[in-house]
Design a protein that fits this description.
Blueprint (H helix, E strand, L loop, with lengths): L35 E2 L27 E11 L7 E6 L8 E4 L4 E7 L7 E4 L20 E6 L6 E7 L5 H6 L3 E7 L1 H4 L9 E9 L30 E2 L2 E4 L2 E2 L2 E6 L1 E8 L6 E6 L5 E6 L2 E9 L1 E4 L4 E7 L8 E6 L8 E10 L21 E16 L2 E6 L18 E8 L4 E5 L3 E3 L10 E4 L4 E7 L5 E7 L2 H5 L3 E6 L1
Parallel strand pairs: 1-11, 2-5, 4-9, 10-15, 14-22, 23-25
Antiparallel strand pairs: 2-3, 5-7, 6-8, 8-9, 10-12, 12-13, 15-20, 16-19, 16-21, 17-18, 17-20, 21-22, 23-24, 25-29, 26-28, 26-30, 27-29, 30-31
Length: about 475
Amino acid sequence: MNLSRRGLFRVTAAGLLVAGCASGGANTETESSAGTLLRSTAKLPEPFTVPLPVPPVARPVRPGRYEITQRAADVEILPGLRTRIWGYDGIFPGPTIETRRGQATVVRHRNELGVPVVVHLHGGRTPPEHDGYPLDLVAPGAAREYVYPLDQPAATLWYHDHRADFTGPQVYRGLAGFHLIRDDEEDALPLPRGEREVPLMITDRSFAEDGSFAYPSVDPSLLGEPGVTSDFVSGVLGDCVLVNGAPWPVMEVDAARYRFRILNASNARRYRLALDPPGAGFVQIGGDQGLLAAPVRHDQLPIAQAERYDVVIDFLAYRPGQEVTLVNRLGEDGTARVMRFVVTRRVADDSAIPARLADVRPLSRSDAVAEREFTFRRGGAEHHGMTLWTVNGMPFSADGVVAEPALGTVELWRLRAQNVPHPIHIHLAAFQIPGTAHGWKDTVDLGNGDQAEVLVRFEGYRGKYVLHCHNLEHEDMMMMANFVVR
């Protein structure tokens, strides 16, 4: 087990907090999120005073080719203050990339930041050399081309930094954006589109008095010792909810159906979203990996880090002038609110939600050619007195391999969470959760003590990939493992 690259990382075992604990004056907000609340010292705005921004759609430099520069920029997130972000093309969220199924796409990333970066297309069925393996670094001043075959159904994917040891702070500074795949099957459905199809990236952040992002890095330069200070090793929870980079924004909507592609891009916070007043609730049409077989109605949406919900909200259930608040049933104070919709007028609406959405063949346990178990917990290994976050008791190593599935097969993986909640993400391979209507997924949410059985289908490419916890502070502290598709 090679731990040399982590040799500078120092956190005592006593500093590893679990849900419900806090020290050093920090406040913990943990009904369902593993982590410690970091309070802003900047003056935060009144909710629902900032308009909802929508990330711009990236323009290809030529068909099938995009160029993105990762660079710092000073932007206004809190009214009257400037925040230094690290952004794709200098914006947060980054530009939305829209592509079509089966049309290979090349995205050239140039790194003008002062630290190494890695780009992962989350949910992409991608060859290993283009997947964003956490040690495949792009050095400052260098560039790298990522080639995406996109041989997969229409879905809401996203791209974000995946640098080993430093994913948490680099995503927190702004390195995240949407990547939408479209296809003919989805285009044939009468779903809301155009201005009534809106991506919503939900994050939580804390701000220093001058408006800068507050994040408790041991080394804020992100060039030396990795990790966060001991109060925050279970996860960093912000006290300001941002949607598409704006604090508690407001959006005017017609009394019509809208399609919202909801992504939880927070480092450690989980949400349970609801509408107040509830109206007709949410009609889910898709999840992590694309459309469901049939729509499912929800009153609440539990969404862990990296999960996506593709939903339709029918604002015809409200009267013009009515305010509808998207709330978080797991939050307190400011984090109990997310954004607000204001219904403006009644209009013609030719959209509909069909009873059948896509052809999703359910997998069964009989499809599995092998069964494996993975436990995600704190402990099982130490390094220089540091207790690590581990998979099956082992911290991440570039040389370690926990599974060698065969290409074209299905396996049953039992995923277990201990100590605190863990959202588990598997690269390359989509999976189904037997007995649910969630369709194909790439991330599963596990509460403390929970177990999930997932049927994982290994399609696409041979090579080395990772599975890991998507609490980014846990991931940075070695809760990640390699598997190799043979």
